[in-house]
Structures are given as C-alpha cells and as structure tokens.
Amino acid sequence: MGDGRRICRSCANRRQAQANPCGICGSIDYAGRDRDGTPRCRAHPPGGDIDPAVELAGRLAGPTGLPIETAVAAIRAVARNRGGQLRLLWAFEDHPDLLSGGGAKGPPKTGALARVLINRGATGVQVPRCPLCDRAAELRLLHQGQRCCGRCWLARHREVCADCERLLPVGGRTFDGKPVCVGCRQADPFNRRCCDGCGQLRVVKARTGDGRALCSTCHDIPRARCATCGELGPCRFVTSEAPRCLSCCAKQRKEANCVGCGNWRRVNNRTATGEPLCGNCGKKPKPCDGCGKVYRVSARTADGRALCQTCWAKHPAARQPCAVCGSVERLYHHGLCAACAAPRSLHSALAGPDGQLRPELEGVYTALLRLPPHASLRWSNRRPTHRALLQALAAGTGPITHESLDPLAPAQIVDHLRALLVAGEALPERDEQLARLERWATRTVARVPNATERRLLTHYTAWQPLRRLRRVRPGRHITVGQSDSVRMEIRNTVRLLEWLHGGGIPLAEATQDHIDTWLSQGSTQRHWVRAFLLWTSRSGHSRPLTAPAHGSELSFNVIAQDHRWALVRRLVTDHQLAAPDRAAGLLVLLFAQPPSRITRLTTDHVLDTGDHVRLRLGREPVLVPAPLDDLLRELVTRRRGRSTIPPSREPTWLFHGIYPGRPMDPSSLSRRLRVIGVQPRQARNASLMDVASELPAYVFSRLLGYCQKTADNWNTEASGFGPDYAADLTRR
After folding, report:
1. Rounded-to-integer distance, Cα 529 and Cα 550, Å
2. Over 60: is that where the pLDDT of 552 sits?
3. DSSP type of residue 663
C-alpha cells in the first residue's frame, strides 16, 4: 500500500482490478492485459474467445510432426492456465524460430515446452541454450533483451563489495546503498543475533519451537532414519512423518535436468549411478512392506521397512508419547499431540502483537476450541486462508459481530466461521438468506445511473419487498423462493430504469407507451416491475403506469401421474441411492413438501411409537407409510456429516448441512433431487393436484401445513371450473 501497510492478496487483487478498468467496456472485473497492454475484463478476455492451446498446437503440429491432440496436451502440461498459454502463443507469433534455436527470445517456459515435445516424439525441436555460455540450463533471467542462465546473469551483475573490495554478486546493501557480498553481509555484526544457547553474537542457524534462536554450534540436529535414502543419521523434520537426512536435504536444494522426465527440477533423489531425479521420478511407487500394494513410500520404520501413508498411520512407530499429556498417538508438532497443540496454536493465531488475547475474542477462542483438535488446528495453523481470517479478527478492534464479519473474505470461509460462532453461542443467530439479499439489493440498486431514481428505488426496496420479508415470525427464516422473487423484481426494475436513462427519459416523464415498448423487447420476466410501477403511480413519483400481472402456473407446471408413481417406485426399491435423497424425494412426491420446508424438519417433527411413525407437517401429524418410516428413523439416528459442533440452542436437523448448527441449503437439496430425476417444483405440483382432488381443502391444509387460501386455490385447480359454472348457471 501507499501508506506502508501490508494487505492480503484478495484486497490487492481488488485494488488492481479497480485501478485497471477494461479498455473496451470499462468494467473492473479484471482478467488480464492484451498484447498492447490494455486491461481487459472477463467479458472481453485477452486474446478473445480463442483457445490459445489449440491455436498454438495448430502452429506446432506441422513443423514438429505431432498430432494436434498431442501438441495440445504438451502445451497444457507446461502452461496450465490460459494466461501462460497466451504468452507462449504471442511469443511464437513474434518469433517463429523459438523451437529451432531462438528460445532465448521467448518466455521462460519455452525450454520446458521444448523438452516435453521432444519426450513425446517431436522432430526438429531444439532445447534453448544460454546465448552467453551455450549451456543447457533454465533461462529465467533477462539480460539485454535475451534470456540467460543464472550463472551468466550473476557474472554480468556483479559489483565491487564495499567491505572486501572484490567483484562479487551483491548479497545486500548498507544503509547508504553501497553493495556488499554474501560473506561480508553475514560477517557484519549488525546482521547477527545473540544465541540463546551459548550467549555469543552469531548468525542464527535455527529456531526452536518456543522461538529461541540458536547458532550452528548450539543447534543440535536429532538422529533418525531418513525416509528418502533409509540411512540412520542426523535428520531434519524429525517430528514429521518423513525425516530427511542432511545429504538428501542438500540434494533437494540443487537443480538439474531430471534423467527421468527431462525437466529442470529440484533434485530429490539419484539413481544408482548418481544421476539426478526429481521428486516425481525419484519417489516411484513401490510395493509397501505392510499391505503389499504399490504406493509411494510415505515413511520408513526403524528397521528400514518402507510403508505407504495408510500403513504408516496404523504402525505403532508413528505413535509417540505427548510431551505434555503423555498420551501415545501421532504427534502434531514439537512433541505435542493434536489436543495439546490446538490451544497453543489457536491462541497464537488470535493473539495480538503483544501476545495477549483481546477480551472480545474470548468467545471466538472458546467456540473454536469446542471443535475436535484436528479441526481446530486446521483453522489455526494448517490452512493459510483460515489462519489469515483469524489474524484479521485479531488485528481489528471492537466486538465480533455479524456486521464486522460481512466485509471479510473469502465469503465461504467467513460463512463457515460464522456458523461455528453461532453454534458456539459466540454470536446470535440471524437469517442469512435475508442478510445476503439485503447486501445484494444494495449493490444492485447502486447500478441505477440517475441519483434521484436511485434514491427512489432504495426507498421502495426498503419499505416494500424487504419490509414484508422482515415481518416473518421470530424463529422462521425466509425461503429461497421468496428471496428469488425479490431479486427478480429488483433486477428487472433496475434494468427498466437503465433503459429509460439510456433513452434520455426520466421516470417522472415516462408514459405507458414507453413501458409497453420495454416490456415487448424482452421475456415475460419483465412483468415483475408491476409492483414498482403501481407504487410510483400511487405515490406521485410517475404518471399512472402498470404492467401485466404475473400469471399462475399451478396446473401447467406439473408432471404426469404415471411418471410421478414411477419415481415413487424407484425411490422405494432402489437401495443404491442415499437415504437423505430417497426420503426427501418421497416427501416431495407423496406429501407435496417443497425443499425449503424439508430442510427445516428436525427430529422433533418425527413421532415414533415403535409400530408407526407420524410426521408433523401441519397441525395434525400425518401417518408415514413404509418404507419412508424406516428412512426417517435412519435420519433421526444418523448424525454424520461435516457439522462438527453439536448445537446447544438449535434443534437437530434431519437434513443437516455442511456448517454446524445449520440445515442443508434448499438449493443444494434441489440439485440432489434433480440428479436422481425428481424435479422438485413439478413433482410437488403434481402431488398437490392429486391430494387436492381427493381431500377437502380444510383437511389437507392441516395435514400438509399449507394455509387455507393456498389449499382453496389448489382445490379449485384440481376440480376445475365446471362445478362453479354449473352452480352459477342454476342460480341464474
């Protein structure tokens, strides 16, 4: 940042996008730059709509003699994203001889592409060599417009050291900007620290788990059996599952051409003749000494037996006594088990610069400690994005509220943390569907170009559709259908105001002809502006305007009854389907329950007397037939999933979601039902049509939980208008 503070990558990307609007449409959805350096958005990506890998493969297929499919696979193996593929394509357009000796003019991945093409049988391809020393090496650095190896770049970027006065590569600079070499920089007393072991002023070699700095003499390297070569000696990473000796560590730090794949990689191992191998080629799958299956070696026992990851996790050698509690299990770090390491790691993530925990974070600390130890460690140490979120809370001020969590990113991780805090009673519960709708409405209304009309739409949104949703009874939440209806209304209203502004027509001067013209140019979804137009007409903000009312689809959006019963037979007999999917599908097909109600069912709604199971959907419990009763019993007893905290204030959901204390999202349940062939809305309408034709409206409204007005409407739809017409004709 300009003020010297550091920001996260997400905020940096957002600022980069805002500072680089698209050169075509002005959008800030930054996606890269074209060949001329002009910013482009995702709607107008660099390079247009072409596939750069296919385009480049078409240029390489003829000269190299490879099929286009092979060339495309080679390009995507080297450059996995579209930006890298575009850079290779543009380089080949500027320099067609990149693979025939001019590789120093192209991007760094030109050499890797040449090696991959040669390994796949290409002809006439030359691996780029350094233009200065003619050595086959990785060309990553630029010198006078051409790429060269690191050795040549260092040889041409040397300066006279201010201390030893020798011509060496620059290892650092003094306060006044003078260059110093690596040796003089390490010998400078200013760059040394007091060793906590011997008390001498030396260069810090390593640090212990509690932060103590040790020099090379005091740093005692423990002995273990190397997981790479199997030799017993001083090893790094002793507390991990794969200790590595000093020799193997030195090999891994070097880089060379792997004799296995031909790529320029770090050396992880060597062949019997001493040739270098990368990590993938050096750790080839071998028969595990535990299970006999061919896997990569994860660790070795004290006698040198190679074990895979599964067998090593079960082996007694992987379990050691914890340094604090003494429990024998797989240690997490620094000799501590997961249960003992979790409080320390979590406190470290939430503590401020002074090492103390803010009082406002005590609830967060307690809620996360209720997780299983490994889950708590994932939040505090194992996953960088989770730990960065906790550190952002620690760096803030004031109490932790829903409003303070809303602007944080990424949104999915923030939602998970919010659910943990609500389940752990660190935050009160709120309707997340309504909160997301309010944030979306604020962003969408801001698109209206006219300031007066923008304020008018803001007032309408707050006091008409959102006000109706906020009046839901306590303990109830708005459904996805209600939220989508409001989104449809606001979205189309914004489009109408944008269309009027583009034609230079203020809303106060718009006529019904203008509205009819706009309605005729789009789909029937534009009729959702009717409520807004009627409101502006009543309030005097516009002339008398209107739009057609949204038509009913009750009796048209249904499936055939034979198809419905075929789906019922499949859910009853197909035991390969998951129990939640079968139960939810039968509730839709037999009891006409929408996904928004199914996901809110709890174990308290299931009344099991032993012989029969009744389900409370409305005021009167309904008898559940077999085998749906057994499926409901299974859901009551089944308590699996990713919800790691048993909620203390919430009921136990039959269809629990991925977040603690929350049910499954209705849209997720709808997607799962569509996968097995059940269209939720059409199936529910067909079931309602069948039930309404057999039961009085008063009865099925009390059994299925529908209001009396909805039951009357469906009873009318099911019976048709013939009886009403005959009765009216008789009266006349």
Report:
1. 10
2. no
3. B
* 169 touches 178 (CB < 8 A): no
Give the residue among 119, 145, 30, 28 at the shortest CA–CA distance from 83. 30
198 has a pLDDT exceeding 60: no
DSSP for 222-289 reads PEEE-TTT--EEEEE-TTSSS-EEHHHHHHHH-EEE-TTT--EEE--EE-TT--EE-HHHHS--EE-T
Q: Two tokens at 597?
A: 């109600």
Nearest in space to 409 (alpha carbons), one of 1, 2, 4, 15: 15
What pLDDT, on a 0 to 100 scale, did the predictor assign at position 2? 46
Tokens of 505: 């027509």
Q: Which residue has the tokens 């050291």?
A: 161
Q: What 3 state SS string does 368-412 have?
A: HHCCCHHHHHHHHHHCHHHHHHHHHHHHCCCCCCHHHHCCCCCHH
**Using an 8 Å Cβ cutoff, are 588 and 686 in contact?**
no
CA 561/CA 566 separation, integer angstroms = 9
| Predicted TM-score (pTM) above 0.70 | no
Distances (CA, A) of 324 to 302, 337, 376, 447: 24, 8, 18, 58
Q: What is the pLDDT of residue 614?
A: 92
Q: Is 398 left (phi over 0), alpha (psi -120 to 50) or beta?
A: left
pLDDT (0 to 100) of residue 730: 60
Look at 151-155, 444-448, 504-508, 589-593 and tell me which has the smallest mean pLDDT: 151-155
The DSSP code for 623 is E
- 257: Cβ contacts below 8 Å, ≥ 6 apart: 136, 263, 264, 276
Give the sign of the dihedral formed by CA 345, CA 351, CA 356, CA 357. Answer: negative
Q: Which helix (H) or strand (E) holds 11?
A: helix 9-19
Distance CA 441, CA 450 (A): 17
State what percent of residues in the chain have pLDDT above 70: 88
A 10 A CB-CB count for 326 gives 9
Convert 530-565 to b/e letters by CB count within 10 Å (16 or more is b).
bbbbebbeeeebbbebebeeeeeebeeebbeeeebe
| Calpha distance 553→551 (Å, rounded) | 7
| Average pLDDT of the residues of the chain | 82
